[in-house]
Amino acid sequence: MLVVSNIDLTNLQTMQPEAFLKSSIRATVLNINNDYRYMKTGYYVSMHAEVLGDAVTPSSENIIEANRTPILLLRASKAGIATLPYLVTGSVKQILTETAFPLVVFPVNPFSYSGYKTAKNRSSLYRAVKSLSMNYKFPVCAEPMKGEMVTFKSMFGRCEGQPENVRRLSEKVHEVFRIPICKLHVQRVEDEVFLCGLQPLDKAEILPHDLELIRNKISGMSDAGVHLVG
């Protein structure tokens, strides 16, 4: 297994993305990157592996779909992961007509990611949509805010310090989309948790204990000869 990583994983043999993108290596590739968004280096590593005919995790298809909130929620729901109703539109009027406050608004713009914004009234909704849609050039994804928004890091589906139901959700999201490193947004509504969105991590958010978890996971996969694809 070839590990291609833009993160310093001390004591593990890895290849830098820039070197891999210039290569024609045939191998099973594990693509470790803090940011897999469309047209970012993490995305191109998986694309390059696929062009070469390499098995790669995560796949470019999973990268694209995990980072498009409506597709993320659709696939998650089909896989049995709890989600809330959502509306994809560029029209504030439609949101006002078909939903109720408070709301959580996510961008659908494929070229940037600004997390999410909450809207509790008309004026805050207009501001959120204008900001996240790049001045109404792209649609947004609006979801009802029924509980508490919680954001946490997911490393191969593991999220330390979270309750059991959140840990199960994180594991299931990783099982479906195979994204090794990401940030997940969920809503906790009483005893239930609902997936709301996925976001890349900044490198500064990856702490020493996160790096240890990543290294241990990869070492375990290599020792076991695990062949992960998707």
Helix and strand arrangement:
Layout: E1 2-5, H1 17-21, E2 29-32, H2 41-52, E3 56-57, H3 60-66, H4 69-78, E4 87-89, H5 92-98, E5 103-107, E6 117-119, H6 122-132, E7 140-144, E8 148-155, H7 164-177, E9 181-189, E10 192-199, H8 208-224
Structure report:
The chain has helices at 17-21, 41-52, 60-66, 69-78, 92-98, 122-132, 164-177, 208-224; strands spanning 2-5, 29-32, 56-57, 87-89, 103-107, 117-119, 140-144, 148-155, 181-189, 192-199. With 230 residues, it is an alpha+beta fold. The strands form three sheets. A four-stranded antiparallel β-sheet has the order 4-7-5-6, with helices on one face. Strands 1-2-3 form a three-stranded parallel β-sheet, with helices on one face. It is globular and about 55 Å long. The two termini are 14 Å apart. The mean pLDDT is 94.
- Number of DSSP-assigned strands: 10
End-to-end gap: 14 Å
The SS-based structural class is alpha+beta
Number of H/I helices: 8
Overall mean pLDDT stands at 94
List the domain count as a whole number. 3
Anisotropy-based shape: globular
Low-confidence residue ranges: none
Radius of gyration: 18 Å
Query: What string, H for helix and E for strand, traces the elements in order?
Result: EHEHEHHEHEEHEEHEEH
Share in β-strands:
15-25%
Give the strand order, joined by hyphens, for the main sheet.
4-7-5-6
Main beta sheet = 4 strands, antiparallel
Helical proportion? 25-40%
